[in-house]
Design goal:
The protein is α+β, with helices and mostly antiparallel strands and 186 residues long. The chain is built from five helices and eleven strands. The protein has a five-stranded antiparallel beta sheet, with helices on both faces. Strands 9-10-8-11 form a four-stranded antiparallel beta sheet, with helices on one face. A two-stranded antiparallel sheet has the order 1-7. The longest helix has 19 residues.
Amino acid sequence: MRPEQETIHEIIIQNSRFIGILFPFDGNVKEALQRIQRTYKNATHYCYASIYQKEKRFHDDGEPNKTAGFPILKILEKYQLQNTMLVIVRYFGGIKLGTGGLVRAYQKTAEETILKANLLPIKEGYKVKVNVSYNRLKQLEYILREEKILEKDFQESVFVTAYISKEKKTELENFTPILSLEDAFF
């Protein structure tokens, strides 16, 4: 499963604001965190967990070790989310929660944020890159009409990067050589 779009959920626990931001994720942690830090300025902590393809990451951002990022990751795994990032922004309210309280607060925020989101099934397939001439681009777009085109790079010919289902691989290979192919969840 993956979130259809960004979902935001806020709770207050002993005067601290916990804001969960769940969104589809492309693997760029730095860019995602910078965007959230610009939106939620002066927060005490920006803790997160992400799962992209087969890579899992988490960060406590100054909270005691494994009291924030790791519990968030466990909730992402519980709901079998892929290509997803969940950042929980905390504005400290003056009352220390202790390690157990922090774990429960981050878990609760993560779970409530996920439950509020519209989740979509995830497909297993490939991320591919192909190269076609300009006069064959419309044919390629027709073949990929139900797939997710990520990028078109217009040079002397057109380089197209897309996510394709496993069923589409043979049809695409019969149309044009595949320059790169890697397993993907999308």
